[in-house]
Amino acid sequence: MRSIAVLNQKGGVGKTTTAVNLAAGLARAGLRVCVIDLDPQAHASLHLGLGVATGHESVYEVLVGDASLADVRKQVAENLWVVPAHLDLAAAEMELAGEVGREVILYDKLEADDQEFDYLIIDCPPSLGVLTLNALAAVTEVFLPLQPHFLALHGLSKLLRTVDIVARRINNNLRLTGVILCLFESSTRLAGEVAGDVDQFFGAGAGANTAWADAQVFRTRIRRNIRLAEAPSFGQSIFEYDADSNGAEDYANLAREVMGIALSNADRPKMAGAA
Ligand code: ADP
Ligand code: MG
């Protein structure tokens, strides 16, 4: 199984749109995909067609309570499952504050899960708090969506440092493997310039000895497309909402590119210090 956290502590950069439509693209290609919605705003859950979950039917109960992933996971399409979020999740940050091992609760629940998936995709909240740390402890890959405006790389050092620290202290197999340019406006000069900056930032030789040394910038750029912004309110992926849109084309291409990456270490993460 490949396990991917879609992470950027900025809001509005395309995390949820990417988590949902990449997952749907992979599911359409015949792969079994589970999305875990770790954002209290529950946008991924809604986008995938679920109504607002009650507290005890959501990932909140998995992290704070006794629920297993299977208890709250719902199938939303062929090959596609979601572990929904709920507004209550916002309180988890506080409620887990005194808990020993609070960063590895999701990891443990995944270890105990008996379902087999080809892809696990986690939609992270726009923060680097305990929910995001649970995601980073539980996956082997981070995908970073970036919106190409002039501050795209601003604040990135904090995110990269967080990934690096988690990789060293908690989850030795964690790597930032993919950077995705989202909300791309191909007609503007700025988009082209920022794309060049991003290529250079993550280019050959950059980040040596860090968890992002091998990050690739995906060739597929997700163009700004109104259909992608409309689809969530219908509870449909872009493929259901408008299969002929640029958005569907871009996410289908991204899914193909993601499937094509050869990874040497695609197994479940191993905990630091574990035998
Ligand atoms: P995040 O999860 O990082 O906060 P979202 O995926 O929710 O970001 O995207 C922010 C907003 O931009 C949402 O309203 C979403 O529908 C819209 N959006 C995302 N990607 C695109 C795109 N490529 N074209 C047009 N609108 C987009
Ligand atoms: Mg989001």
TrEMBL record:
Position of the signal peptide: none
InterPro entries to which the protein is assigned, alphabetical: AAA_dom, DNA_Partitioning_ATPase, P-loop_NTPase
Protein name: Chromosome partitioning protein ParA
AAA domain location: 1-175
